[in-house]
Amino acid sequence: MQKILIVEDEKAISGVLHSILSDELTEYEFVIAEDGLEGYKQIEKEDFALVISDIKMPKLSGTELLKQSMMLKPESTFIMISGHADIDSAVSCLKEGAYDFISKPIDINRLITSVKNALAKESLKKENKNLQTENKTLKRKVNKKYQMIGDSPALKKIQDMIEKVAVSDARVLITGPNGAGKELVAHAIHNQSERARGPMIEVNCAAIPSELIESELFGHVKGSFTGAIKDKQGKFEQANGGTIFLDEIGDMSLIAQAKVLRALQESKVSPVGSDKEIKVDVRVIAATNKNMQKEIEEGKFREDLYHRLSVIEIYVPPLDDRKEDIKLLVDHFSGMIADEHGTAVKKFDDKAIEALKVLSWTGNIRELRNVVERLIILGGNSVSEEDVASFVRK
């Protein structure tokens, strides 16, 4: 049961306060302190949902109790009471962090209203704190899956960019070769943003036939085309309140590009076969392995859509440009693969790591992960330089 502390040197007043408030707030337990020093000792021992304190008291004044308590427990909620009320006292208490100031003789209705409002505010603060804790826990769990491994200058530059752009809702275009980690960057932005509690919906634009991409993105109504046997919600609507990740955006048809442009301009989508417009609140992150300027020059990609998508552009370099990260990546993949297979982690000796660094990684991090798994399966008790020479063909 939560507790309320009454700090008052006049027993008659503390008795009245206790009697009235305990009838109104049956779910709380009340503790009474007869002076400021005793009140401070109580606050040191335990947390109170609310402290109601007189100002003029022996040993330690209410003003000093407020100051010292706020230094000890900044989340404390105080209502101050005084028979010597004046504007300066009220302002001073409020500046020190008191929730309210009530003068004697006490207006009981005003006191009850103030106490209930203060407790409601305290409850809301705790709820927000719990939500923040849950949010951080969620981010840690998700971040482990989409962890970015390495300490190269190139990766640190990307991580700095992510930290800066995540706090905004600016659209981001991620460029770089296949397998370099563009998806990880997209997830990192989402996970570090205020939208982390919302959905992140991924769309591989290259994997969806051009005639179906509009339906996938915006949904359709029953009967709108052959095979549309029921209404379908589109990816933009599914991502409402969160993030949509348009991977391989450079492979999207010009017709679909026009529809996406309209959705970005108006924050609305229309399902195929419907005149209805659906309002969506979505952050858009896109990725491509193509040279977008070349695509624009060849008429394959709309320049206006490119500028809408690339408010922020993040380039993810190939693994060949950050080979100093290979050892950390190998260690990471070794642990991950051991967990998947239910086996002990297999060590790669230093010469094996150096042999991997000499190679060219056209498939980037995705290729390295596959090679690590192959070497763990086919190599000896620890992976050697000879294992790399035997089982990695370049």
UniProtKB/TrEMBL annotation:
Entry keyword Metal-binding: no
SMART domains tied to this protein: AAA, REC
Entry-linked CDD domains: AAA
Keyword Phosphoprotein in annotation: yes
Entry's Gene Ontology BP terms: phosphorelay signal transduction system; regulation of DNA-templated transcription
GO molecular function terms noted in the UniProt entry: ATP binding; DNA binding
Positions of post-translational 4-aspartylphosphate modification: D54
Domain Sigma-54 factor interaction: 148-377
Record-linked InterPro entries: AAA+_ATPase, AAA_lid_NorR, CheY-like_superfamily, P-loop_NTPase, Sig_transdc_resp-reg_receiver, Sigma_54_int, Sigma_54_int_dom_ATP-bd_2
Pfam families for this protein: AAA_lid_14 (PF25601), Response_reg (PF00072), Sigma54_activat (PF00158)
Coiled coil: 121-148
Domain Response regulatory: 3-119
Keywords linked to the UniProt accession: ATP-binding, Coiled coil, DNA-binding, Nucleotide-binding, Phosphoprotein
Record-given protein name: DNA-binding transcriptional response regulator, NtrC family, contains REC, AAA-type ATPase, and a Fis-type DNA-binding domains
Species: Chryseobacterium shigense
The organism's taxonomic lineage, starting at the top: Bacteria, Pseudomonadati, Bacteroidota, Flavobacteriia, Flavobacteriales
